[in-house]
Amino acid sequence: MVLLMVLTTGMAFAQKTLTGKVSDESGSMIPGVTVIVKGTTTGTVTDIDGKYTLSVPANAQVLSFSFVGMVSVDMPIGENTVINVSMKSETIGVEEVVVVGYGTRLKEQLTGSVSTVSDKQLKTSSAPSVVSRMQGQISGVTVTSANRPGADATIRIHGIGTINDPNPLYVIDGVPVGPGNNINPNDVESISVLKDASSAAIYGSRGANGVILITTKHGRQNQEPTITFTMRTGLSQAVNQYDMLNTTQYGEALWLQAKNLGKVPGTTDPKSLLYYSHPQYGAGATPKTPDYILPAGTMEGASSVDPKLYNFPGYVIFKANKQGTNWYDEIYRTGVVQEYDLSVSGGGAKSTYALSANYLDEQGFLKYTGFKRYNFRVNAESQFAKWLKVGQSIQAIYINENGNLDNNGEGTPISFAYRMQPIIPVFDINGVNFAGSKAPGMGNATNPVAQLYRAKDNNGKYFRAIGNIFGEATLYKGLTFKSLFGYNVGQWNAKNYNLPSFESSEPSNLSGGLSVNSNFSILWNWANTINYTTTIKEIHKLNIVVGTEAIENNYRELNASRSQYFALTPDYMQLNSGEINKDNNGYSNSNSLFSQFGRVNYDLMGKYFMEGTVRRDGSSKFGASNRYGIFPAGSAAWEITNESFMAGTKSWLDNLKIRAGWGMSGNDRIDDYQMYSTYATNNYMAAYNLTGSNTSAIAGFQPETKGNPDVKWETTKTVNVGVNAAMLDRKLTFAVDVWQRNTSDMLYRLSVPEVMGLATPPYVNIGEMKNTGVDVELGYHNTLMAGKFTYALNLTWSHYKNEVVKLSNNTDEVMGYEERQVQYTRATTGKAFPQFYGLVVDGIIQNAAEATAAPQFEDYTTPGHFKYRDLNGDGKISLDKDRTYIGDPHPKFTGGLNIDLGYSNFDLNMFFYGSYGNDIINYVDRWIDYGMFNGGLSKDALYNSWGSPYANNATAKLPMLDQASRSQEASTAFIQDGSFLRLKTTRLGYTIPKNVLDRVKLKNVRLYLQVTNLFTLTRYKGLDPELDSSGMSMGVDRGAWPTPRQITFGLTLGL
Amino acid sequence: MNIINLKQKNDMKKLSIIVATCLLTAISYSCADSFLDKKPLGSTSEDVFYNEKGINALLTGTYGMVKGSALWTVSWGASIQNWTYGSVASDDAYKGSEKTDQIPVNEIERWEVSTTNGYPADKWRLNLGMGVNRANITLNVIAKTKDLAADKVKEFTAETRFLRGLFNFEAWLVFGDKIPIIPEDKIDVASTITNVNAPGAVVKWITDDLKFAADNLPETQAEPGRPTKYAAMALAARAYLQVLDYASAKPLLDAIIASDKYSLMPNYFDNYRIVENNNAESIFEIQSAVNDIDESLNGEMGIGLNWPHGSDIGMCCGFHQPSQNLANAFKVDANGLPLFDTFNNTDLKNDQGIASEATFVPADDLLDPRIDWTMGRRGIPYLDWGIMRGRDWIRYQPFGGPYMPVLKPFFYKSQRNTLSTTTGWQTGINANNYRYIRYAHVLLWRAEVAASEGDLAKAQTLVNEIRTRAGNEMVMGKVKIFALPPTVYPWGPDGSVDFTQPAANYKIGTYAAFADKNAAMRAVQWETRLEFATEGMRFFDLRRWDKLPAGQRVDMAATLNAYAAGDLRTRDVMQGATFDEKDKYQPIPQTQRDLQPGILEQNTGY
Fold this sequence. Notes:
The complex is a heterodimer of chains A (about 1050) and B (about 600).
Chain A: H1 2-8, E1 16-23, E2 34-37, E3 43-45, E4 51-56, E5 62-66, E6 73-76, E7 85-86, E8 97-100, E9 103-106, E10 114-118, H2 119-122, H3 130-133, E11 141-145, E12 153-157, E13 169-172, E14 175-177, E15 188-194, H4 197-200, E16 211-216, E17 223-237, H5 247-260, E18 292-294, E19 318-319, H6 327-331, E20 335-347, E21 351-363, E22 370-385, E23 388-402, H7 413-419, H8 448-454, E24 459-476, E25 479-498, E26 513-536, E27 540-563, E28 580-604, E29 608-619, E30 628-639, E31 653-667, E32 678-681, E33 687-688, E34 698-699, E35 701-705, E36 714-727, E37 732-749, E38 763-784, E39 789-806, E40 814-819, E41 822-828, E42 835-838, E43 841-844, H9 848-853, E44 866-868, E45 884-887, E46 893-903, E47 906-916, E48 919-922, H10 924-928, H11 939-943, E49 975-977, E50 980-991, H12 994-1000, E51 1004-1018, E52 1036-1037, E53 1045-1054
Parallel strand pairs in A: 1-7, 13-16, 48-52
Antiparallel strand pairs in A: 1-4, 2-3, 2-5, 5-6, 8-9, 10-15, 11-12, 13-14, 15-16, 17-20, 17-53, 18-19, 20-21, 21-22, 22-23, 23-24, 24-25, 25-26, 26-27, 27-28, 28-29, 29-30, 30-31, 31-36, 32-35, 33-34, 36-37, 37-38, 38-39, 39-46, 40-41, 41-42, 42-45, 43-44, 46-47, 47-50, 48-49, 50-51, 51-53
Chain B: H1 6-31, H2 33-36, H3 52-63, H4 83-88, E1 93-96, H5 103-109, H6 118-144, H7 150-175, H8 201-216, H9 229-242, H10 246-259, E2 282-286, E3 319-322, H11 324-329, H12 371-374, H13 397-400, E4 434-438, H14 439-453, H15 456-470, E5 476-479, E6 497-502, H16 517-531, H17 538-545, H18 556-567, H19 590-595
Antiparallel strand pairs in B: 1-3, 2-4, 5-6
Helix pairs in contact in B: 3-6, 3-7, 6-7, 7-8, 7-9, 8-9, 9-10, 10-14, 14-15, 14-16, 15-16
């Protein structure tokens, strides 16, 4: 719109009038096509009938027609006064106008590293979040999706810039928002990703991790109302399970384990150290599967299993599941996914509008889980006066999610499915109440079906409104002033029922409990910008933006819980009906930012482009002495093909541009109030029952934080060099960027010796991080069979290398990530953030001689155990001295490949995504291969472990099954190759021919069938190599929701 | 289509003025310092504490640390009950539970602690990082507060120094002399203070605080959570006992006895009942509260794992099970006196490996009645929970042995959900106070002083006083059925239990005059073990008795290695485990040594 304003103002010197009409391939007239005199800003747009009238300078040579989604057309003017054009739709979206911070650019004017994602690319995926849909569509970003219903994805732009929050800044229609913003992907017109600091510096202290600018759909001037209805519905299923032992095999594994521990099953004297018995499988030489597990090890006919005795929860009876419960089958289901979307857009001469409503209902493939989202949006703009345009945008989002959606942790339903023993049935003999680990010898897992069922009424309701209102005044030719007030208001309400789990060996919440969380956030921003565009002597094009912006963010939360409920029903269980533990809690914070910024963009003869940016930010997050920061950037580009010496290449080279940029941007995403030392009350860490009452305590105070008045934002400096090229009539396009990001003043919570007190230590600007990388985008499209068959290939390829240059002044400083007393990852100077850390396994010790010769690890070094490598050569293994870096969760590269094929009215899209060279540590193995706790075991544990009668010791995959904790140390044995190539989407579409539609007065009807996650090539043994875990736990699989396979049918109707 | 014509130029001027004004307003409003000045919400700075109310608030926060838990900043490794270092590492108890749960405690049980073990690190963090630091902050705030009445200064200072003494004492028990001495004026340079101290410096540092507290605290406190003069004296006496400084301990213990403020409760088990919290025997109790201001986190979270697991009771997670050796120690001879030399030659009959449904007749040996207030044995009533059903009630018998998790901190079924927590997963957390120091401690410590001095009559009187009381109450309910399938829960069919009969063949006798000093000392030591069994003191008692002169000395290594060898009769967990000199102290946490390179020295042998 801004561009159109600019264009329509440049018509003062008209000397000749051209008219004409613009149609599409089918002959329909296209309104809103930009018509400009090439090389100038003189132009107009076509009206509702696709017609235009334009006064042009007498010396005008070429008329250029462009429209989003169509191939631009250049027509020589010559002596013509009527120029009619037919435009073809574009297979690969090369956007004319690219949204950049506080403005727009023509694509060829870009000097920084900016990638765009079109609405067409977003439609390649049906993931619920916009970020998930960006996966593989552009280079230089890595996107990993979480797979639970409604889940967002993690995105990293140009590596990992910081050990702190590495999320990019999201700006929707000029309003800063956080990740997980849940807007409707169908509403998105375009996304710009500002990857380097030269483009992100305009966002100052918030731009260091890149900026994602999302623009929602607008109506166009003189556009007939367009009504589009789309719907899709389909099924979602999990495709993977761990291969677990059944009941009989599990008994065998127990006996194998007993033998490995030196027992001789069958020994009859219970006092003998050789004696072995199991409460369920008996004390014989071989395991005997009982008929019942509660009462333990009972056979049919025993008086204790008489159903008359059944009395819940005092006396319950569990049958043994002799075939074995497949817990995955029990927790999985086929989820139904449906989405309906209605949008209306249009515009008159002075006003435009776009409205939409969307409903998404995604049932999870785990029982009783689901996500519903309702989106409503209105965008409207009006040209009030010739000099004044006002507009507004508002999106209302309501989300209702329910069930247990916990992900990637050992206490989630997915994890309990592998932690449960197969002999436990889902229900007890009464058929309604659950069975569980309460039966002796059954470990301590929770029945995951029960867990899911009890959480079925847990829900989170979330309301958010994002919007803005703006006015834009044209003060003088080329000079506009825009004032935008934006807001982002969120309200979250969650209700979780904590119901008793009597069937568990460690039952919890016996009297029932309820916890309710509610929070409210409001962010407003007010941005005022003056934009000046001018062309001097037709070859100097200048664009200047200066502005100010104020942002304030307020957050408040209220949490309450109760326990002891008279009735355990969701209706009865409210905050007022809970009898005891009436706990309430709250938290608030607030921060603000005030900034001034400016940017100059200079285009010389369409060949040389230069841009300079500076932003000055003042932030409440930092102390008065460091409150303000200045972030400069500069970049330049050279359009070589426009040079005269390149005339000879015109026949095949359409465009070749070299870009280079340098810039500084910041990251202020740390907790508020870092400069203050504070004390706070705390109901359990600083409270005490001084009065001797049994049920009350007095709250005191504790040191909470230690302040650092000198704390400031992290600074990231980026150098970026890139090349863009288009060849063979733009059929072949190519872009490559090489970049380096250096983060300095990286905020690090200095590890303070504990004797200094446990108050949260302050952030100190001490760390440094470095990322280098290469991004490649390659596209080719063409037609065969006289245009009947179209095809397009689009490849993205990204590589980054991350390195922690410095954490603190102590070069030995390390950060680590631990799970169940074993450290898995580590970050330190000179290494990536993070890397896997542990012992090196040199095979399994085969015999006593080998054991004696091997470096000794306490009493662990015996046949059947791992031979660990003695790295420091002291003859023994110790965790202090013999651990090293054993793997890398960072991919060597990630890539996406889009294949679009079209024949007649059929179209086929296939989207591949892959990651190469990343390792995964499968923490799940510790449970199922090594027998941590007495839960489910993998087939390998029985059939492929050292000492197993089924295995060849020399080639056994696992050490002997004996629960030895030293076998479970983080080691190379746990490292797996996480590389994969996945066919993410396959979609076959059919567009009903226009001649058929004309009879039923429809503009457009398209049907499609889509399958996601059709196949995955990987050597990873876990459920899914595509693992959404970031930060220090990157690459550690703790039982994450696997990627489902969805089969969807979709329909688009254009009225 | 130039949008600016002459007529509009006037409008444009106006507009420009309006816009300029708007911009200026925006800038000046936004630039105002107040806009960027955001003060913390819901927390405060130190200066608000410079008054009586403020000091009380900080002092209460300091008290909060005596519980030995501050989930999740520290977990079960910091418990003031020292169930790991004082009990599991000794011959009193096992880690219990199963092998792969809380693996670091396996290292403690087997005396193979590595310097990266997270449990001792918890103890360090809580006592030195949180406890001492908070006490020091409180002392500094007291000093900075003007216009505070002299008696208030005295009261606050004395309480705070008592707490600091206690935190240092707890760290000292676990780590020995290698703890940094951090006075309140060194709070900002604490990280530069070495843990290498002159001999005797640490015990002096601790007892100086406690003596100041003893001199300035009142004889009684309205609020039972606060220490009295005598609590300070008793803790100082315990500190002196650690270095066998009997001469310094003696007057303190005598003063407590002479005060006539304390007496033994009528029944032994009163010391472990919630309804008898803060009783006449209590000198200093660690207060426990459940279902309070924030769920139950003011209960004893540090022992949150040490409750029955699964089956009919079902809590979490079956840790801290008494050892067979301890069961054996409760055997008595025909006179009701201990079998000092032979107790561990054979095991008191147990049901290891025997199914609950199978027949098992409990031992009919003569037993000290305290056994069944300490440990849950098969076929013996387990408070009011029912007949203890043996294997089905144990999380994993081959690893944890045949006995229920330590009974003393447990609660009655009738108290469930009122005096035990109703939230979370550690559902055994309850309102039972931990009797950190009770009058029985004072009596037995005094008896030990007497024994070492050769005051045989005094030792005899005191030990017998303890034993006489122990005989006052025994577990009632003779179980007459010997196969215990789930159908018998809780008490079996009518007539299965005769509640008029004692549960086992109890007998406890008193000592006749001791033959000599050595016999007196042995009786005192034995009594100390039985009276306070599983209460987290045994390991530290063995360690100091190891330094007594020959004849009175208990050879700690020999005792524990004999325990490990004998334990193989019950389970194989201690196979290959050897206790040696280095295992007397836990290692200084490696993470802290890394953060204070060249400052913190490691304990010998690690």
